[in-house]
Hints:
The structure holds 2 protein chains of 2 kinds.
Chain A: H1 8-18, H2 25-36, E1 46-52, H3 58-61, E2 64-66, E3 69-71, E4 86-89, H4 104-112, E5 118-125, E6 128-134, H5 139-147, E7 156-160, E8 173-176, E9 179-181, H6 187-195, H7 202-229, H8 232-252, H9 280-296, E10 302-307, H10 327-331, H11 338-363, E11 366-367, E12 370-371, E13 376-382, E14 397-400, E15 411-413, H12 424-433
Parallel strand pairs in A: 1-10, 1-13, 4-15, 7-10
Antiparallel strand pairs in A: 2-3, 4-14, 5-6, 8-9, 11-12, 13-14
Helix pairs in contact in A: 6-9, 7-8, 9-11
Chain B: H1 6-17, H2 50-59, E1 69-70, H3 73-84, H4 114-135, H5 149-168, H6 174-188, H7 197-210, H8 212-215, E2 216-217, E3 232-234, H9 237-248, H10 255-262, H11 269-280, H12 283-296, H13 299-309, H14 322-341, H15 346-351, E4 354-357, H16 359-365, E5 376-379, H17 392-397, E6 399-400, E7 403-404, H18 406-417, H19 441-445, H20 447-450, H21 452-458, H22 462-465, E8 480-481, E9 484-485, E10 489-492, E11 499-502, H23 503-512, H24 515-530, H25 539-551, H26 556-563, H27 567-570, E12 571-573
Antiparallel strand pairs in B: 1-2, 3-12, 4-5, 6-7, 8-9, 10-11
Helix pairs in contact in B: 4-7, 5-6, 5-7, 6-7, 9-10, 9-11, 12-14, 13-14, 24-25, 25-26
Amino acid sequence: MSIRKNHRLSRRHVLRGLGGAAIALPLLDAMRSDSAHAGPGDTPKRLIIMYTPNGTVPANFWPSGNGPDFTLSPILAPLAAHQQDLLILGGLDLMSSLKGPGDAHQKGTGSCLTGTPLLEGDFAGDGGQSAGWAGGISIDQEVANHIGQDTPFASLELGVAVQDPANVGARISYRGAGQPLPPENSPYAAYQRLFGDSISDPLAVERRAARRRAVLDAVGDEHRALRDKLGGEDREKLENHLTAVEEIRDRLDEGVISFGGECQPLQQGALLDPNLVSNMPFMGKLQMDLMAMAMACDITRVGTIMWTRSVANHVFSFVDPNIKEAHHSLAHKGDEDAPKVAQNTAINAWYAEQMAYLITRLKAIPEGDGTVFDNTVILWTNEQAKGNNHSRYDMPYVLAGSAGGYFNTGRYLTRPDQPQVPHNKLLVSLLHAMDIDADSFGDPEFDTGPLSGLT
Amino acid sequence: MRELLPILVGLVVGATTTAGCQQPTADPDGQAEDESSTDTEGDGDGDGDGDEELTACEANIEPGPAPIRRLTRVEYNNTIYQLFGDNSQPANAFPADEVAGSFDNQAAALVVSPLLAEQYEIAAEQLASTHAPALMDQLPACGGVAPDPDSCTADAEAFITSFGKRAYRRPLTDDEVSTYIDLFITGTGLGETSYEPVVGVEVILQGMLQSPHFLYRVEFGAAELVAGGEDVVALTSYEIASRLSYLLWNTMPDASLFEAADADELQTAAQIEAQARRMMDTPRAREAVKNFHRQWLGLGRIEPQIAANGKNLEIYPDYSDDLLSLWRRETEAFIDDAVFEQGANVEVLFTANYTMMNKPLADFYGVTGPTTDAFERVDLDPSKYAGFLTHAGLLALYAKPDRSSPIHRGKFVREVLLCQSPPPPPDIVPEAPSVDESQTTRDQFLQHSADALCAGCHRLMDPLGFGFEHFDGIGRYRETEWGLAIDASGELIETDNDGPYDGAVELAAKLAASEQVKNCVATQWFQFGYGRTKTPEDSCSVEEIQADFAAANYDIKELIIALTLTDAFRYRHVITAEESP
């Protein structure tokens, strides 16, 4: 059960429910349970997306069987405890990444959550400098635009060992065309960002907030004045910067998160280097702990976790000491290279294990009669389907969680009758799952409504 | 920014139809080919011969685009150092600068995310609380037990005016001054006691360090349109001061530039050139040139990329991560010495038969000479080594953990040094062969020329990369590979200096003699210096840079001076503001 007594929406609820009297935690819990049963709109739904790169090993990824009767594959086996919560989606194609500038990895990454081709630009890739940022808003941000206003942070972008250079291969979230959001690699910095005020001296926090209000009001005015004198892309740049300043300013009036109930401070343990590949298992868990905590505290309802980056050359020797080659080059090994295929399979299975951990964490947070996970959907996406040929057909999509009963989980869906199904349909379905009306998302060429058969 | 020369465009088309190098359908990864026409001779808009074009360039002022530029992390840190004498490098905590082309300072790619905006705030708060107490010396009327608020505010106004001018790199407007006076007065009431001037100064600093006029290089130009241009204005002297300082020093203007700007003496080419020459002769210019090469050649990637991927210690037992920073520093020190101590031109960077090493690096290379950790000049065997191209760091960077990589090395030469983009690989890439001790690397990759699917594109890369086959996966010279004879012959094709060569030394000499390489260097400096790629409107500026570069016998310092004298540097188009939404 989350305690959100200081942020706007819940404060309003609190005031309405209790006449502004001091509240005891059990009462708040009871009130929240009521709201959880009040029907669509009041139930806080959550979207979490995890990205892993370099494609999968399709032969070891897809389950056998069909519909509700399916057996998990070697890669998905670590998710066995949650099989009834999964919706494994065969037959979807990253069509929007098959057009526009950029190379296969760049396009797959920019397109995976935006459903758009890339803009023209100067990012270096195979084929020279043709790729720019993605050409539209990403699904997480679209959802955040609809449901993020009720929480202190509209969304949370976390990364695990997302290495530089900072370019289109290292970003999945976009506030709009050409407006990427960087993931935070350090769980320590992210924790400080989300909860720093909650673990500091309240008087000092309030004093700082008063100064911030004064400063940001003046700074915001300067941004507005400059924006009004500019045109074209410069104007857009200032506009986006201004939006960020206004968000920070608005958050000052949200107050700080109070710990209580399921919303408890995290013990992050010894301070380790978040950028070291060998620390990935540890950092990944910390980031997932933080994501779960952010949901438990209702500090946000939308999150992404970007694991490494496109063309990641991380060496996963922590998965298997025999792995000595970088992920990307392993992913390029031929299907007949059994030892290397086995290693690549192990890497992808390790990622499935991480997803299972996140599910377990969310299932451990009570909410209403169930858990936070009941009102959540997690999407696992990749930028390719098959690493060794850059195929972006039959993308290895996995959904976990029903988003408050919207998805009918525990099934493996195939679409043998449909030759090409743009993944934009999946993105539309996610909008619907979050109670957002939409007929299309991303590139208008794939204006095709939601996927059938998911609910 | 990289051109596909017309001849290469022809090849791309040819490759599509014959060799089948490109993905035939469904995935048109192709380059924007219209870029190829930007600055080749006889470009579309000039309808006359060369003389007429030159006249047209002189008669017509065309600055090209001038996007607003956000400070990079390096620029932010340097600017904070200039403002406060603070070497804490707060921007290191910011998200990495977005990298486009080879560079982290490209206006189009640099954006401000909410996360970065928050980090600007945190950095501003930390800097303000660190430095406000000492800055109170500039507000004497605010000291004492019970300062008089009016006198204190008067001092604050003086501080706002003087500090603000340095932070905004121009004098503040009256409105801006009064905004900050208001903020100061508000701030004095936000301390622990009822009147705390130091908090007022803190909030001034916090505000200025988050102002768009600090975080971006904002330019509007002079009020009057210049004759000879279409909607073109000259930049103000303050704007020129910033352009000079961020180009040559990667930081804010110094006192001398401010003085020149105060006197409006950064308007003529002669005034600008005189400042540029003064600035070039300082250590900060050397840092900026280092910054350029770190990015252009990829020296900055030597440490993170090789450390992340590692090297195979069974094959390269002498490798350790400790070598990485030495490798980077070798090339940096060599270029720094060549450019600033020897006055070398760009050809020497390719052909010099010396390098800079310290003792640990000399031990790695197996040469004698240096006895300390300081880098010093070491002469090398000119039959084996030539300029930066045979430095271990670059050769190890463009290699695999367990072998050399003729493809990556050839791609580096083709893309980075010749400014040509090979067409993209097809989506379906056959597996690269694993290390085979019975064959040389070259023999294994000959498949590329045998297989029609690969040959069309790999002919642009492999025959350049084979020249480096005497250098192994950690960039060290080898006579043989697995006891087998090494063939380091190759051929330069689709360039202005085509022909066969044998080994890295001969390849380096051919590249050094290439006009295309020199124009490529100029193009890379254009992109780094101006924070953008060149456009068709820049043809006159580019011609001027190339001509000045050639006239100075390809002296790198003169190339940088030339960058400060173009239309693109001195002018901009008038900004057309849109209606507020």
